[in-house]
Amino acid sequence: MGSIFKPKMPPLPPPAPPPEAPDDEISPEEKERIAKEQAAIRRRKKGKSSTILTGPMGIQESEEDKLDSLLGKK
Fold it and tell me: Fewer CB in 10 Å around end: N or C, the chain?
């Protein structure tokens, strides 16, 4: 005797077949274009990292840098 609060689970559908690999290869021109785009992305990322002044632990400055004032070092 079944319960209306615990219905039986329907059977799972069969798993989908894995996608097939493309038959055509990427042309050398296409590979070169992709490599140039990735190199440009790496250059842009590298340029931005030099402007980041904080690290995973917060602001990374020495004790001497903390003592700076508008008129010079104390």
Answer: N
